[in-house]
Amino acid sequence: MEINGLPLHPLVVHAAVIFGPLAALAALAYLVPRWRDVMRWPMVVLAVVATGALVLSYFSGGDFLDSRSELRQLPQVQEHEDLGEQLLWISLAFGAVAVVSGWLHARTGALRVVFDVLLAVTAVVLLVWVFRTGEAGARAVWG
Known about the structure:
Structural class: mainly alpha
Radius of gyration: 17 Å
C-alpha cells in the first residue's frame, strides 16, 4: 500500500488522528440537549469518516509491517501494533453506536438513555485510545 512510493500508513494516520477526536468531540456535543439537533448529522458524518480512516490506518499499518518485518521485533512497534488493534475495535464500536444514535435521534425513554451512555463511553474511550496509539507510534518512529 503506497502512494508515489511512500507507505500509505504514515499518510492516512494523520486523517485518523484528526477525524477520530473530532468525531468523539462531536458525539459528546451531540449529548448536550440544546446542541442535539444541530450536531446530529455532523456527528454521524464525522463518525463514519473517522471509522473509515482508523480502519484504513490499521490495515495499512499491517501492510507496512509486512513489508518491513524487521520492525516487528522492536518493543515500541509491538506496543503501537497492539494498541492499534484495540483501537480498530473501539472505532468500530464507536462508529456503530454513533450511527445508530443518529438514526434513533427522535426516540425518547430508556433506549435513548442507553445509547447516550454508550455514545459517551465509546467517545471518551476513542479519544484516549487515539492518543495512546498515536503516542506509541510517534515514540516508535522518533524514539
